[in-house]
Each structure stands twice: as structure tokens, then as C-alpha cells.
Amino acid sequence: MRAAMEEAKKAASRDEVPIGAIIVDPTTREIIAQDGNRTRELKDPSAHAEVLVIREACKLAGAQRIPDLDLYVTLEPCAMCAGAISFARIRRVLFAAIDQKGGGVLHGGKFYEQPTCHHRPEVLYGLAQDEAVEILRTFFKSKR
User: Fold this and answer.
1) Do β-strands 20-25 and 70-75 pair in parallel, antiparallel, or remain unpaired?
2) Lesser CB count within 10 Å: N end or C end of the chain?
3) Residue 50 among the catalytic residues
4) Which of 7, 16, 50, 76 is flagged as catalytic?
């Protein structure tokens, strides 16, 4: 989660919403891909940290599915990202802070609880939650 937090801080420095994500091989503990939000930079509403690291990990794997990998992210994935995680067949999702307004895993549409969901990853949350919340709080406070 440390590397995901660093990516969140880098996103904030680019004036992006500070969310960072990494994809890890749980066997070797090697980080396969890491990035932060880039929606403004790329002028792409789908350029969330999770989507960017999934794209990179799939590219490196030469496959559309990466079922043996884990995703760490600093904030609960939105519905779009939850869908991408499911379609990529990611094994496990670990996120720091919950997102009552925009989350799509524990909140909102609860993507993985829908009968149409083809793959439900293992979900763990709360890792480094206080740090993730503080990064977000500081960023948005500077915008007001």
C-alpha cells in the first residue's frame, strides 16, 4: 500500500484527485504496474488509477485477464473501476479508504453483489485508511 500512497501523492502534485494504485504479484511481491489518477492530464474520464494499472499489467502479461495478481488502491473503487477489476479477473482488491459517495464495491451499486457480475474478487479494506483519508482531505481543502 505504501507504493499506492506515493502514487496518490504524485497525482495530487499533478493537480489530479489523489488516488494511487498498484498491481502486485502476490507470489513474488513484485509490483507489476503503478500509477495515479490522470483524468485531467490525459483528458480521459476513464484514466482512473485502477484502470491505468490494469491496462499496463494486461499489456505486460499479453492477456486481457490477470487472475493471479492483486490490486492495491488508496480509495474504494468506483463502479467503472470495479467493473474493470472484474473483467480483468483480478484475484484480490485491497483498498485503504471507503468512499460512501462514489464507491462501487461496498457502497452505491455494490458491483460485486450484482447477479450479472461474472467475477467477484476477494475484497479487503482499511489498510492505511487514515493516511489515504488525510491525503484526500488535504487535497480538497486546498481547492476550497
Assistant:
1) antiparallel
2) C
3) yes
4) 50
Confirm whether pTM is higher than 0.85. Answer: yes
Q: List per-residue pLDDT tens for the chain, 144 residues long.
A: 999 999 999 999 999 999 999 999 999 999 999 999 999 999 999 999 999 999 999 999 999 999 999 999 999 999 999 999 999 999 999 999 999 999 999 999 999 999 999 999 999 999 999 999 999 999 999 987
- On whether the CB atoms of residues 86 and 118 are closer than 8 A, the answer is yes
